Amino acid sequence: MIVYKRPEALSKVPMHYCPGCTHGIVHRLVAEVIDELNIEKDTVGVAPVGCAVFAYNYFECDFIEASHGRAPAVATGIKRTHPDKIVFTYQGDGDLAAIGTAETVHAAARGENITIIFINNTNYGMTGGQMAPTTMPGQVTTTSPYGRQKMIQGNPIHVCEMLSTLDGVAYAERVAVNSVKNVRAAKKAIKKAFQNQIDKKGLSIVEVLSTCPTNWGMSPTDALKFVDEKMIPFYPLGVYADRNAMGGDNNDK
Amino acid sequence: MAKVLIKGNEAVAEAAIRSGCRYYFGYPITPQTEIAEYMAKKMPTVGGLCLQAESEVAAINMVYGASASGVRVMTSSSSPGISLKSEGVSYIVGCDLPCVILNVQRGGPGLGGIQPSQSDYYQATKALGHGDMQLFVLAPSSVQEMAQLTADAFGIADKYRMPVLILADGALGQMMEPVDFDALKFTPEPEKPWAVNGHGGARKKNIITSLFLKPEELEANVLERDKKYKEVNENEVRYENYLCDDADIIIVSFGITARISKAAVNEARKAGIKAGLLRPITLSPFPSEILNKLADKASAFLSVELNMGQMVNDVKLATQCKKPVYFYGRTGGSLMSSDDVLDEIKKISGGLK
User: Fold this and answer.
1) A80 and B23: CB-CB below 8 Å?
2) Closest CB to B196 among A63, A73, A86
3) Helix H segments across chain B?
4) Average pLDDT along chain B
5) Domain locations in chain B?
6) CATH code of the domain containing A40
């Protein structure tokens, strides 16, 4: 009996991610959810600019590559013309919370019925570890070499907290994938974020605290510890919004 | 149906809907806002959608997503907003997607003004986005043509899988003229098997991307697209030849200034000067071949534009310096009169004697 196999929605190709990076785990969780909800045939993914730029090679559903930060606008264009298809974006922190802030905030405010998987690893990974809008106070990156200082680089953004204030957001949860327990919770959140879309509840976002051992200059295991000891205290896990924002079919009624 | 008196902007919107476009994404900017207003009113009545985006950047990316998913879609803006769209336009080109974009030009640079201009000619025909790319650019000169070229634009965009830019100006957008919508010709929308709208278990997944990290792959991709541009250059050039065949002085002018120039040509003929007008209807592809042929017979060319001299350089390239090419223009939102153009014709005519 096979108890563990590759999800059907995950392509049989090697991924390019660095050793110890948790993108692979999140990809797998998304693919498992697509399988379990049996939506691969109806799903269109929107890839970001950043480390996950090649996400379109790793899933078996239709995919489009957006320009930096514009994935929620691209997803809007697809979803509004095909309301019965499932549309998700997969975006990093520079993409979603810096260059794409306007697209993110307004898709959320409108209540676009899409799912956003948001990877927060506190830096721009693909370009080599620069400061992101999520880089924490004091954190060293190549563009905050003396540590992020409030009076110089300014403050980071707490994305789930910010988006939860918008009426169009059905669901915002922050999860982590640095332990088996957290991975299981992350899977549950991702599944809910897709189910909400099927139920037409509004925009759902799952923020995943992710590791970047290469740019953090840590071993993969130290990176997992960093998530526990530094990131989770600053970016608390939990549900920030959970409601039927757009009045779609609500099975919870 | 009888002709209806309608603004240029509204004519574009109506023609788009009649062309089967059911999705419009835009952002308000003078002098083209009537399009969004018309779409907002009309689209819900035909089962379509008009969505006001948070920015021009978002609007063009919504167009990108909608086009990629296989529907006819358009956006419109005016000069400063078109600059904002240029990133998205480059991606749409890089992914070989069809869409229609309208630029109702106003004066620039910067915030400029809100009066008519043709100062985005370079941007439209040379570089509305980064990379080796070309747009299909149509230049209407009447409200009827605003409507017909909009209908044509959807067909061309689908046929060649490339964005079509309609380059109008504040005068054409704002003025009202009678339009016969029943006279419009449409091209049916083809199948789009390349679209990303769910594989349905019936085909392999589609990927739409403009990313090619291997130089040889990107080069092959650009070369393949270049074949399409050559085909467009060969088959799609459009122009109006008004009294050019026996003309000494040929005015080259597009859009609103072509109308002013035509009046000047008529006056010049009355005054005994053999003038003609070559009006490019496609700015890209540019009617180089006819201009080159005309340069064998004519004595001089005069490019009349609402800018500081942009298309004039394409006229020089086309005529290969066989004959002198003069320029006359106004900018900043000012229009010239036909008398102004006539004076230029007379000056050139005097110099030729």
Assistant:
1) yes
2) A63
3) 8-18, 33-42, 56-68, 79-94, 121-126, 143-160, 170-174, 215-235, 255-270, 288-294, 311-319, 338-352
4) 97
5) 4-235, 241-352
6) 3.40.50.970
Contacts of B331 (CB under 8 A, 6+ apart): B107, B117, B119, B306, B307, B308
Q: Give the domain extent around A209.
A: 23-242
CATH number given to B241-352: 3.40.50.920
What is the least distance, in Å, from the CA of A87 to any CA of chain B?
9
Across the interface, of A46, A62, A105, the residue whose CB is closest to B197 is A62
Question: Does residue B208 belong to the interface with chain A, where contact is any CB pair within 8 Å?
Answer: yes
Task: Confirm if B286 and B237 have CB atoms less than 8 A apart.
Answer: yes
The one-character DSSP state at A90 is E
Cα distances (angstroms) measured from residue B179 to each of B1, B6, B12, B41: 10, 7, 11, 20
Rounded to the nearest angstrom, the minimum Cα separation between A233 and chain B is 34
Query: Which two tokens mark B77?
Result: 């803006």
Cis peptide before B285 (omega within 30 of 0): yes
Chain A residues close to B67, C-beta within 8 Å: 77
Determine the residue of chain A that is closest to B199 in CA distance: A41
Please state the ipTM of this predicted complex: 0.96
**B4-235 under CATH 3.30.565.10, yes or no:** no
CB contact under 8 A, A65 and B211: yes
Q: How many CB pairs under 8 A join A and B?
A: 134
pLDDT digits (tens, 9 = 90+) for A139-166: 999 999 999 999 999 999 999 999 999 9
Residue type, B19: S
> What pTM does this model have?
0.97
Element (H, E) at B167: strand B163-169
How many angstroms separate the CA atoms of B229 and B134, rounded? 7
Residue count of chain A: 253
Touching check for A73 and chain B: CB below 8 Å?
Answer: yes
